[in-house]
Amino acid sequence: MDKTLGDLTNPTVDELEGLSGVHPGDRRVHSKGICCRAVFKPSGLAAGLTTARHLSDRGGEVEAIVRFSGSSSDPSLSDLLSPGKGMAVRFMPTDRDAAVLTAVNVPVFFAKTPASFLDLIKEANRLKGGGIEAIAAAAELAAHFPEARHAMAHIGKLRPPASYGTCRYYAIHAFLLVDREGKRRPAKFEWLPEIGVESLSIGKLKSLPADYLERDAAERLKKAPFRFRLHIVLGRESDPTDDPTLPWPDDRERIEAGVLEVTDVIAEPDGLVMDPTVTGTGIEPTDDPILHFRSPVYRESMRRRSRGE
Ligand code: HEM
Fold first, then answer.
1. Are residues 23 and 70 in contact, defined by beta-carbon separation less than 8 angstroms?
2. What does each of the 309 residues of the chain score in pLDDT, given as a tens digit?
3. How many Cβ atoms sit within 10 Å of the Cβ of residue 223?
4. How far apart, in whole angstroms, are the C-alpha atoms of residue 75 and residue 63?
5. End-to-end distance of the chain based on CA atoms, in angstroms?
6. Cβ neighbours of residue 148 under 8 Å, at least 6 residues apart?
7. Assign residue 21 a region: left if phi > 0, alpha if psi is -120 to 50, beta otherwise?
8. Which of 11, 62, 157, 255 has its CA 20 to 30 A from that of 118?
9. DSSP secondary structure letter of residue 110
10. Which residues, judged by CB distance below 6 Å to any ligand atom, belong to the binding site of ligand 1?
């Protein structure tokens, strides 16, 4: 592992714990969530671009586990109050060749490097310690960290979703698709909900319980699966692959790689870590430093939570 990443891992997890305290046994962020069983049905349209089995086997069905989550590190926080939502998918085309795709409901990230992420979280903790109100703190962070401006603008517009099944989720980082000849092309991934994106109306907000998203998922899935279309967005030479704070232009070619059907809620399997650098064959991480940093951080979060810390 890159030495710098190792040096920053523990301080970063410590600062994440500072955001809302330690909740023993829980993830250091995205602590509240539910796991579901799912099946991915590839369209075959990505077969010329990648050898990834879960994306290229037209007519095939690939088992998957999905974990939907709220972004907060506080598992008792109401679903209404943590605006960022996550959808992490572990595709399991075979027992040995799993591929992970983690996504959230904003298209860009706050920080370009692990060091600037750590500075930003430290500053957020300092502002919180000074008792500054959340909105004023967000404005201050945006002023001090210009690279966070796109992410802050998106987060400022988020409204509580009607359902985990009505969010559009972005994997944010660029990855490399590797074809049969070994040719590599940069690409991003997005999940589009088939029933459309829907937020809650103001009228409904007051009447909902803190865990309304979990209840909604359990109710809806009894009647029909959540269906998400997987879009692959193809990058051009000029598109940055090492900077998750920058969006790519809207006009990039898209391929619909298949449909994920989320069928039922299940207990969380032991040891589940959605490490985004576990890409399986046919997909590779890019040179994005944040993407690589997530791997040791997630392992450290897992190490602490598995010991009941
Ligand atoms: C410096 C950057 C980041 C840090 C330090 C970080 C940190 C963490 C940590 C500590 C966890 C809990 C891991 C576990 O205990 O299993 C987590 C989970 C998660 N993160 Fe990140 N993260 C970063 C960037 C991102 C980005 C860019 C995305 C968007 C794609 C993202 C999406 C998620 C999701 C969806 C989960 C929940 C995974 C699950 O359900 O198991 N994170 N993150």
1. no
2. 676 777 999 999 999 999 999 999 999 999 999 999 999 999 999 999 999 999 988 888 999 999 999 999 999 999 998 889 999 999 998 877 899 999 999 999 999 999 999 999 999 999 988 877 777 888 888 889 999 999 999 999 999 999 999 999 999 999 999 999 999 999 999 999 999 999 998 777 778 999 999 999 999 999 999 999 999 999 999 999 999 999 999 999 999 999 999 999 999 999 999 999 999 999 999 999 999 999 999 999 999 999 999
3. 6
4. 28
5. 25
6. 110, 111, 120, 141, 142, 245
7. left
8. 157
9. S
10. 12, 16, 27-30, 33, 67, 69, 86, 88, 102-104, 109, 114, 117, 171-172, 244, 273-274, 290, 293-294, 297-298, 301-302, 305
Domain 3-306, what fold? Catalase HpII,  Chain A, domain 1 (2.40.180)
Protein residue whose Cα sits closest to atom 4 of ligand 1: 294
Those residues whose C-beta lies under 8 Å from the C-beta of residue 75, and which sit 6 or more positions away, are 23, 26, 31, 32
253: closest CA among 228, 274, 239, 235?
235
Q: Where are the domains of the chain?
A: 3-306
Exposure letters 115-130 (e unless 16+ CB within 10 A, then b): ebbbebbebbbebeee
- Ligand 1, atom 30: closest residue by C-alpha: 103
CA atoms within 13 A of residue 303's CA, in its CB half-sphere: 10
